[in-house]
Specification:
The complex is a heterotrimer of chains A (about 100), B (about 450) and C (about 400). Chain A is mainly beta and about 100 residues long. Chain A is about 5% helix and about 35% strand. In chain C, helix 1 runs parallel beside helix 6 (about 160-170) and helix 1 crosses helix 9 (about 360-370). The chains are: A mainly beta (about 100), B alpha/beta (about 450), C alpha/beta (about 400).
Chain lengths: ~100, ~450, ~400
């Protein structure tokens, strides 16, 4: 477990759905943090199909763009800036319309 | 219409806000993070409670400033918001925002205090998941309270790695190795001319010394003169290769934290037409300003790393100067004295020069191979870029290369590859990087979805 | 140094003309102030649009009478584009899989049927499709799209690589192509033109029997320096591109009643434009700065994207990665001006509208007019002579 436990109090975990799998996350965490904490380092694939992951964790590099389910379809958002919330569904591949 | 929009909630933006708020100016602060602090004090989520967070003595002035900022109810704080566009219309500015406070914002004056980002350095295997910037690993620690992975290898030329190593140890995790390509001898030679002056601001030096002692005590191998070669792994990082004392070594890693320096965030100043120059020695574009932090665009001010990477203390001082200037230019009364703030900034310069000299990455770059991707968004390799440059006339600028091979045409707008491309063009033409015309910076500075624009 | 032909401007027109002239053995010299393809030729959205514009439909108007000539030219342009990759011997991302001009309501549809009838009468094989038929072709079109005019030969090409292909071909055929070479002065000298050129800090002169101003939106200003009036006016435009997505749109999309062009590139990005204005930067005296990139006009960006997402709702969720601006020009009567300027024998121009779609054809025609010393009658309606009256009081300097 890579979350620091000593001296840190987090809200009770919720789950978020990534490519159909459920992973735990604490409210307040970013999606990128929840993924890294679960050892999911791949966040998208490049044009050759090779996996890519988080690079800058500050919204600058665009490596962590994932697809997030919204009411009216999927939107690409940066995982490092997206807070987790209950019911969050994300995909690391583009979802066909 | 507000009096002043401050882009960036780090030390520079906060210090400026102290002045503009004291002067009675309506002040809005915009930041991509949910809470103010910047990267240096990237706060944990509001829902977390963290004991002794960033308690170190070095961070005390920054924490004090942050407490003042958060307590000030006059400040219009807009977190979780990106600035995608900035334009000057007649005597004011229009910002296009996306995120929590999306829409447009009109401001009489704008301060860009957008900080810097870890310089992306292309080397074999650097696109493997698990290879991160040192800043990414550090902000995961500071804010999200998690260690990005284990084992973790730190590598690069920037002394920030020593601080990061200590923070990882403090978190109760292990550091497999710190690989720094410059030798002790080179470091000392680089530092020597600056040492006397830097003694006016010695605390970071003492901290660096303490960090090295601490690493030694914890048994962390700190290898000066170890040259990182590349990363290997099947679908994710598994090991780091490096050259050390004439031989090649491989060390297992789940995460690598890379730091060869930092690039000023320059998309917004360039989008609005502010004059910039190639930053020395590490590269990127720093926005030009006068002694009161006024850019070449009337009404636009810059402070902190946007004007050249110099650290949090300098950012605070520059923010204060900018805030005083904004208040004075608006005909209002700032809280502090301009000359004193400028003197405070000037005293920091020897230490900044020392750090830049010690961290200078230029003769210790890792080597990219022809297959190494230079543009991570469009997946354009070094070989493709070199072939395009060879086809073009010797006077080609960055845009000409971009148009022909798509380098820099992806989601990040070239933030990862532009500096490297300009270095390559300069090397090919035998000129200074400053003489190479960079990309034209386009709207939006951060990708936004079509429905965010049309509503 | 004396040349038969000196070409000013290394865009699509200049490079293509250089190629045709070089193949005819005229060894033209081309000078370009910046780099090849640095202007509008590389900044436009790359549409190959051959359906006629609505102004050619207004009965009784001058444009109505020109419809036949325009259709004839468009058909020649279709042939020109269809053969380019073979002639230039390299892939140019040219896709002519068809184009749809959409109707969103009954009024649009009425206009479309009128247009299709007129085009068919003039020999352009457009077809009127129902909304359902249009959606069969492009399932992601909005359900309210009630019809479309279909032309099988429309499409798009990659504007970032075409001029290079012409320039390389021209060089292989004996043309001299010089970048970073700025025209400082151009004047008549007997039966020749004398150009003063700045090249890497050095100033030199060159003489030529023929000069082609393939200088896009700079043309009117360069001509004005010689005292010539060429009625070309600035048209600063903007275009946008989204992130990549899996291929789903092989066609060009336009709108009969609104400004829209939309296509998917080989890389999968959606390019959206359609003639929305950007704002030129101004010089100290208030005149537009022809060398600086125009500013984006956010309201126009919003409007352009709203039109696009209106006909294709899935675009709402795409990420916009870049909007860019560029400058072109339109002529006083919205038709290109191509050929010799009567008041300045030996001086040729080519600018003023549709210069990507028609560019390769017009460059060929212009080259032919110099080689054969006669204007091809196919482009008679573009002749600069129609504006000869503007130079009635000019003493060329």
């Amino acid at each position: 477990m890579s979350r620091i436990v000593d001296g840190v109090t987090r809200p009770a975990p919720i789950t978020v759905e990534i490519d159909g799998a459920m992973i735990p996350a604490h409210p307040g965490e970013t999606l990128a943090a929840a993924m890294v904490a679960t050892e999911i380092y791949r966040m998208r694939d490049d044009r050759s199909g090779a996996p890519r992951g988080l690079l800058c964790n500050m919204g600058t590099c665009s490596e962590c763009f994932v697809w997030i389910a919204m009411e009216d379809g999927w939107r690409r958002r940066r995982a490092c800036l997206t807070p987790v919330e209950d019911g969050l569904r994300i995909a690391t591949h583009e979802v066909p319309l | 219409m507000i009096d002043i929009a401050i882009i960036g909630g780090g030390p520079a933006g906060q210090a400026a806000a102290r002045q503009t708020l004291a002067a009675g100016l309506s002040t809005t602060m915009i930041d991509e993070q949910a809470r103010p602090g910047g990267q240096i004090l990237r706060q944990p989520p509001a829902a977390f409670a963290v004991k002794g967070w960033m308690a170190g003595r070095l961070y005390r002035p920054l924490r004090h400033l942050l407490a003042q900022t958060e307590a000030d109810t006059r400040l219009d704080w807009r977190g979780s918001t990106s600035v995608a566009g900035i334009e000057r219309i007649a005597d004011h500015f229009r910002l296009t925002l996306s995120g929590a406070h999306g829409g447009t914002l009109l401001a009489r004056r704008v301060l860009i205090a957008a900080g810097c980002y870890d310089m992306p350095v292309a080397m074999p295997g650097w696109t493997l998941p698990g290879v991160m910037s040192a800043g990414a690993v550090q902000t995961m620690l500071k804010s999200q309270q998690l260690v990005a992975g284990q084992p973790i290898v730190l590598l690069g030329s920037h002394p920030l790695l020593l601080v990061l190593a200590m923070q990882i140890l403090d978190a109760g995790a292990e550091v497999a190795a710190v690989l720094m390509p410059q030798t002790y001898g080179r470091t000392m030679r680089a530092a020597l001319p600056h040492l006397a002056g830097a003694m006016f601001a010695p605390s970071p030096l003492i901290a660096a010394g303490a960090a090295m002692a601490r690493l030694r005590l914890a048994g962390v191998p700190l290898m000066m003169g170890a040259r990182p070669i590349g990363f290997t792994g099947d679908g994710r990082l598994e090991a780091v290769d490096y050259a050390w004392r004439g031989r090649t070594h491989r060390i297992a890693a789940q995460v690598a934290a890379v730091s060869y320096g930092f690039l000023p965030q320059s998309d917004l100043p360039r989008q609005v037409g502010a004059a910039v120059r190639w930053a020395r020695p590490a590269g990127g574009w720093e926005t030009l300003c006068d002694g009161a932090m006024r850019s070449s665009v009337p009404g636009l001010y810059v402070a902190g790393e946007t004007t050249g990477v110099a650290g949090a203390d300098a950012a605070m001082a520059e923010g204060e100067i900018a805030g005083i200037a904004i208040a004075l230019d608006a005909g209002a009364q700032p809280a502090s004295d301009m000359a004193r703030a400028q003197a405070r900034r000037a005293r920091l310069q020897p230490f900044i020069d020392l750090l830049r000299a010690v961290a200078d990455p230029r003769d210790v770059w890792p080597q990219a191979t022809p297959e190494t991707l230079l543009c991570r968004c469009e997946d354009i390799s070094v070989a493709q870029v070199e072939a395009t440059m060879a086809r073009l006339s010797p006077m080609a600028d960055a845009s000409a290369v971009k148009h022909r091979c798509r380098i820099g045409m992806g989601l990040c707008q070239g933030r990862s590859c532009e500096h490297a491309l300009v270095r390559r063009i300069a090397a090919a033409q035998g000129c200074d990087p400053d003489a190479v015309a960079p990309f034209r910076v386009r709207f939006p500075a951060r990708p936004l979805t079509v429905d965010e624009i049309i509503g | 140094m004396t040349h038969e032909v000196l070409i000013i401007g290394g865009g699509l027109l200049g490079c293509a003309a250089a190629w045709h002239l070089a193949r005819a053995g005229l060894a033209p010299r081309l000078i370009e102030a910046r780099g090849i393809n640095a202007g509008a030729s590389g900044q436009n959205a790359g549409s190959l649009h051959f359906q006629i514009e609505r102004r050619f439909l207004e009965p009784g108007g001058t444009a109505h009478a020109q419809g036949g000539d325009i259709v004839r030219l468009n058909r020649l342009a279709i042939e020109e584009w269809a053969g380019l990759e073979d002639q230039l011997g390299r892939p140019l991302d040219i896709h002519m899989h068809g184009g749809l001009m959409l109707a969103e309501n009954e009024a649009d549809l009425a206009l479309l049927s009128l247009k299709v009838a007129r085009e068919n009468e003039l020999g352009l094989p457009t077809q009127l499709l129902s909304g359902a038929e249009a959606r069969d072709l492009v399932p992601r079109l909005a359900p309210h799209i009630c019809g479309a005019a279909w032309l099988a030969q429309e499409g798009h090409a990659n504007p970032r690589i075409l001029a290079d292909a012409f320039a390389d071909a021209a060089k292989s055929s004996g043309a001299s192509i010089e970048t970073q070479s700025r025209l400082l002065d151009l004047r008549r000298d007997g039966d020749h033109w004398q150009a003063t050129i700045e090249q890497s800090g050095q100033i030199a002169t060159a003489r030529a029997r023929h000069v082609i101003l393939a200088t896009g939106h700079w043309t009117a200003r360069i001509a004005a320096r010689m005292g010539l009036n060429i009625p070309l006016y600035l048209a600063p435009l903007m275009m946008s591109v989204t992130d990549r997505t899996a291929p789903f749109l092989p066609y060009l999309i336009q709108h009969v009643g609104k400004r829209l062009s939309m296509k998917q590139t080989d890389d999968g990005n959606m390019v959206i434009g359609g003639g929305w204005a950007s704002a030129p930067q101004k010089m100290a005296d208030g005149l537009p700065d022809l060398d600086a990139p125009p500013h984006l006009v956010p309201d126009n960006l919003r409007a352009n994207l709203a039109v696009a997402a209106g006909v294709m709702p899935c675009l709402r969720g795409r990420s916009l990665i870049r909007s860019w601006t560029g400058m072109t020009c339109i002529s006083a009567d919205q038709l290109p001006i191509v050929g010799e300027v009567p008041a300045a024998p030996g001086l040729h121009v080519a600018a003023g509208g549709s210069m990507f779609t028609l560019g390769p054809l017009l460059a060929r025609m212009l080259a032919r007019s110099i080689i054969e010393r006669a204007m091809p009658e196919e482009i008679a309606l573009f002749s600069a002579a129609r504006f000869a009256h503007l130079n009635a009081f000019v003493v060329p300097s």
